[in-house]
Every structure is written in C-alpha cells, then in structure tokens.
C-alpha cells in the first residue's frame, strides 16, 4: 500500500499540472482572439472614418462644381437687351 500511496501523489500532481497548463493555453488563445478582434474593429473604424472624410471632401467639390454650373447657366440665360441696360451701353 505504501507503493500505491506514493503513486497517487505524483499522478494527481501531473493531472493538476496538465490542467494548469491547459488553462494557460486557453487563456493565451483567448487573449489572441481578443487581440485579433480589437485590431479588426480598429481597422474597420479607421476605414469607415477615412471613407466618410473622402466622401465629405468629394461632396464639397461636387457642390462647388454644381454651383459654378448653375451660375454659368443663369448668366448665359440673360437676354442681350438686359445686359445692355445693365451696362449702360
């Protein structure tokens, strides 16, 4: 029985050691997953912010083009007599 008692101790220790090691692996895997998720979410946030800024810049330039076209169209719609009266010729 002394021999069996001695074997119970190391076997239990090895099982406990494996559980601790496997729990460390799980925590390492969890931290890697969290790191990956945080990096993906950060990348998506930066991409969306850059896209929104680009759209805002393009919208501004489009407004300027549209305004210039409107002014040009309106100026060209004046009658010649109206321009003569306005300039005093």
UniProtKB/TrEMBL annotation:
Keywords: Kinase, Membrane, Receptor, Transferase, Transmembrane, Transmembrane helix. One of its GO terms (molecular function) is kinase activity. The chain crosses the membrane at residues 33-53. This is Cysteine-rich receptor-like protein kinase 2. It comes from Artemisia annua (Sweet wormwood).
């Amino acid at each position: 029985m002394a021999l069996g008692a001695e074997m119970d101790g190391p076997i239990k220790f090895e099982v406990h050691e494996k559980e601790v090691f496997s729990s460390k692996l799980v925590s390492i895997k969890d931290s890697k997953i969290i790191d990956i998720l945080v990096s993906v979410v950060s990348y998506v946030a930066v991409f969306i912010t850059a896209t929104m800024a680009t759209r805002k810049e393009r919208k501004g330039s489009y407004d300027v083009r549209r305004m210039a076209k409107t002014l040009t169209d309106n100026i060209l719609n004046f009658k010649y007599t109206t321009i003569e009266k306005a300039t005093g010729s």
